[in-house]
Write a structure and sequence with these properties.
It is a single chain. With 178 residues, the protein is α+β, with helices and mostly antiparallel strands. 28% of the residues lie in helices and 18% in strands. The chain contains 5 helices and 5 strands. A 5-stranded mixed beta sheet has the order 1-2-3-4-5, sandwiched between helices. β2 and β3 form a beta hairpin. It starts with 5 loop residues before the first strand and ends in an 11-residue tail after the last helix.
Length: 178
């Protein structure tokens, strides 16, 4: 465990780096009903009972977790929705520290259970969650029915450049994707 990394509550000053790190590590095409965006982060941060934390190496956000007491129609269940650690900082126990601090905060706010979901090919995240006390509760299969009258144009999407991402505000110039 890297003790030089501080885990602190997320604030507005961390927003740009959290967004950039999320864009760097999340593949939201795997679960097309999931989107990583400013709105996704803001909804968590704006929640009065949020459990949003960042891991800092000096002033650099090297990890974050976004949780809240909002899970479906259960007032007593919480949701650990997003967690990420910068690729160059993985393997130092940062993700485990983030899961633990988020879980402790949610349990302190009255959560009886905390729910999270992991894409089945993400074995590292699944191992982290299992070793952190999460147990499998349900398996969901995403089924997709394409429109036979519309060509599947997913393969012909234009490539996105760093310039496009900067122009859209999805990438800061100070912290470009590597």
């Amino acid at each position: 465990m890297d003790t030089a990394i501080a885990v602190v509550p997320m604030g507005l000053g961390h927003l740009r780096q959290v967004l950039d790190l999320g864009h760097q590590v999340f593949d939201t095409t795997i679960k097309p009903y999931t989107s990583w965006s400013l709105t996704a982060v803001a909804q968590h941060l704006d929640s009065p009972d949020n459990a949003c934390w960042v891991a800092l190496d000096s002033d650099r956000v090297v990890g974050f977790v976004l949780g809240s007491m909002e899970f479906e129609h259960r007032d007593d269940w919480a949701y650990l929705e997003w967690i990420a650690v910068a690729p160059d900082m993985q393997g130092h126990g940062i993700a485990r520290r983030l899961v633990n601090v988020c879980s402790e905060a949610l349990f302190a706010r009255g959560a009886r259970h905390i729910v999270t979901d992991v894409e089945d090919r993400n074995s590292a995240s699944a191992a982290l969650m299992t070793s952190s006390g999460f147990v499998p509760a349900a398996t969901v299969t995403l089924l997709v029915r394409p429109n036979p009258d519309v060509p599947d144009d997913d393969a012909t999407l234009p490539p996105i450049t760093k310039r496009d991402l900067v122009r859209r505000g999805r990438l800061s110039i100070e912290h470009p994707l590597r």
